[in-house]
Amino acid sequence: MDSVAEWLRQPGFAGTFATMGADVSQLMAAVFTTLFIVGWFQAKRGEGTKHHWLMLGGMIAMLSFFTSYYLFRNLGVLAFEGKEGFGGSQWLYDNVFLPILTIHIILVIIGLIMAVYMIVLGYRTQFISGARRLLREQVLQTSWGKMLGILGVLAGLVITYLLSLVALDRFGMGKLAVWVSLLVIIALVMVLEKSIQRMWPNGARRHRVLGRFTMVIYCVLFVTGSATYTMLYILYPGKIG
């Protein structure tokens, strides 16, 4: 793991002031965004099977890559290390760069949550007719009991994992905070799901509406990520970058 983290800190391949990690991240963001836009058009053309496999593979790959990447880079804290990591003026840092970065981080969290949500929703709403995958036009509801049961299972798995860390003497308050925060986010998503169920009880319509919302999030995420990359590593590289 240390060798991977060290490799990510090496000079990048794009010819900018970026590290290898920043260049790889930007490249993968472009690849995933392109894949999702293609999948969006597949859905609009009614190519359900192609859309299913492209989006499923793309979202699983995205979740795997960016989760690993942000763990290796400590959630990208480089950009929050203060003015030292940004070569522009203090005004530009406070009023342009930092707001864009904050929006980007928030969208990253929303995007990862929506990836998991859309995978689950896609499987719940689809049915196979011959060789085609279609959305089932019917009411799709989940009870509070089922949601609490799922949350309880996840909490049990997290507790088991944290206890194993204690046994291995690898437990830390930072890890506790991360996993507790994850459970809180999942609980908030479940509360949001109950509101969404009332707004769009029809599962197929819910999938289409939230699918468009998720695609917009990913497109804006790519724009904000590109903006922070350009400012940090091309226009205003700092001492760290």
Protein model, in words:
With 241 residues, this protein is mostly helical. The chain has two domains: 173 residues, Four Helix Bundle (Hemerythrin (Met), subunit A), CATH 1.20.120; 60 residues, no CATH class. Helices cover 73% and strands 3% of the residues. The chain is built from seven helices and two strands. It has a two-stranded antiparallel ribbon with strand order 1-2. Strand 1 and strand 2 form a beta hairpin. Helix 4 packs antiparallel against helix 7. The longest helix has 36 residues.
Brief descriptors of the model:
single chain; 241 residues; mainly alpha; Four Helix Bundle (Hemerythrin (Met), subunit A); two-stranded antiparallel ribbon; 7 helices; 2 strands; 3% strand; globular
Lay out the secondary structure.
Layout: H1 2-8, H2 20-44, H3 48-72, H4 90-125, E1 126-129, E2 132-135, H5 144-167, H6 173-199, H7 203-235
Helix pairs in contact: 2-3, 2-7, 3-4, 4-7, 5-6
What's this entry about, in short?
The chain has 241 residues and is mainly α. It is built from 7 helices and 2 strands; from the N terminus they run ααααββααα.
Please describe the biggest sheet, giving its number of strands, its sense, and whether it closes into a barrel: 2 strands, antiparallel
Provide the CATH topology of the largest domain: Four Helix Bundle (Hemerythrin (Met), subunit A)
The residue-averaged pLDDT reads 82
Task: Supply the CATH architecture of the largest domain.
Answer: Up-down Bundle
Give the N-terminus to C-terminus distance in angstroms.
22 Å
Beta fraction: under 5%
Tell me the domain tally. Answer: 2
Q: For the record, what CATH class of the largest domain applies?
A: Mainly Alpha
Compute the number of strand runs: 2
Report the principal-axis shape.
globular
Q: Which strands sit side by side, in order, in the main sheet?
A: 1-2
Secondary-structure-based class equals: mainly alpha
Q: Percent range for helical residues?
A: over 70%
Number of helices: 7
- pLDDT < 50 stretches: 75-81
Whole-angstrom Rg: 20 Å
Order of helices and strands: HHHHEEHHH
